[in-house]
Amino acid sequence: MDKNKSINQSANKNESQSENQSRYIGVNEWKRHGFQALWALVTNSYLLGFIQGKIYKGRLKNLCVPGLNCYSCPGAVGACPIGAIQAVVGSWNFKIAFYAAGFLVFIGALMGRFVCGFLCPFGLIQDLLHKIPFPKKLQTFRGDKALRKLKYMILAVFVILLPMFVVDILGQGAPYFCKFICPAGTLEGGLPLVLLNKSMRGAIGWLYAWKNAVLLATIFLSILIYRPFCKYICPLGAVYSVFNPISVFRYRVDKESCVDCGVCAKVCKMQVNPVEHANHPECIRCGACKKACPVNAIR
Amino acid sequence: MSRVFRSRRIGILLMAAGLILMGFGIHRGEMAVVFGKAVNICMECIGIG
Predict the structure, then answer these.
(1) Above 80 in pLDDT, residue B44?
(2) What is the ipTM of this complex?
(3) Separation in Å, CA of A56 to nearest CA in chain B
(4) Which residues of A touch B36 (CB under 8 A)?
(5) Which of A63, A71, A196, A218 to probe the B interface (max B CBs under 10 A)?
(6) CA torsion sign, A176 to A181 to A182 to A183?
(7) Chain B residues inside the 8 Å CB shell of A208
(8) Which residue out of A104, A105, A111, A182 would a mutagenesis test of the B interface target, given it has the greatest number of B Cβ atoms within 10 Å?
(9) Alpha carbon of B46 to those of A113, A231, B8, B42, B43: distances in Å?
């Protein structure tokens, strides 16, 4: 008798769960996008660069920005931390990048992947691309979980090991991640500079074609999958993900208030279940779960 | 309050470690390398070099 009662209760709970899910599934993200756009504008505020086809050369470029923002973007006023690591690791006199690594440790320990959700211009671009309607959007697929480990391999191989060990006769390594992978560099730097500079147009070759192919693939996949670059490729996301569970600012789930409705997991586009792991390495802290929670259990 | 602080202790310690690393990197002149790279168009980054 008791067993039947508990089954009935469970069925009622499931019904109310699906009701909640359908009610809260659409989370308004435009406020966050507004913040992302404002930050992108602040870190790319050298607007003259977009007119003249030149890049900013002022002292602010000594400083790194927290997100993936190519320093060859005409508007960029800061340095990309991934580019900075490769520049130092690949230089002939330094082989360990204390400055850029320290910056990433500081930012990561402060806010983890909040940077991905709010302070990365390339994240914003992917967010907006994913809003383009497509007949079949992919939430997850076979091998999705394993593929997410790829970003750690890219960080180790293309950002650290190759620039450190594959060097020219002067002992200088190329920024291999920027050179062969980074679509942000093509979009933010390559396209505008080539469009605005006649001399550069004459210098394009197979590498430019390859990088544009990578960019096009990223654009197409971003329409299909939510933030594919952040999930599978981004070495910056890989660094910040390590700090997600221990960062100063992080999510907390009030287990007493939580009604186990599952809405938070349903709205998460990074396929994280905040109740199981509130600060999962894949969480980009976009705040969708927090907004969707019917009992405000996520803080 | 102290519980909140304790739970955040690792993060705060790592932030301090990050600042020390940054300071050490600046002290040994890494910032000049970053600056030198950032103020010149990175041909590899844009797909030309």
Answers:
(1) yes
(2) 0.91
(3) 7
(4) 87
(5) A71
(6) positive
(7) 46-48
(8) A105
(9) 26, 23, 40, 7, 5
Structural domains of chain A, with CATH = 26-249 (no CATH), 251-299 (3.30.70.20)
Nearest Cα of chain A lies from the Cα of B32 at a distance, in angstroms, of 7
B19 to A185: CB separation less than 8 angstroms, yes or no: no
What does the block give as tokens for A54? 């030149």
Residue A112, phi-psi category: left (phi > 0), alpha (psi -120 to 50), beta (remainder) = left
Is B30 in Cβ contact with A105 (below 8 Å)? no
B37 touches chain A (CB under 8 A): yes
> Residue type for B45, please?
C
What does the longest C-alpha to C-alpha distance in chain B come to? 54
A88: CB partners within 8 A, 6+ apart: A94, A96, A97, A99, A100, B25, B30, B33, B34
Per-residue pLDDT tens over the stretch A42-77: 999 999 999 999 999 999 999 999 999 999 999 999
**Percentage, residues of chain A above pLDDT 70:** 91
10 Å CB burial of residue A167 (0-12, 13-18, 19+) is middle
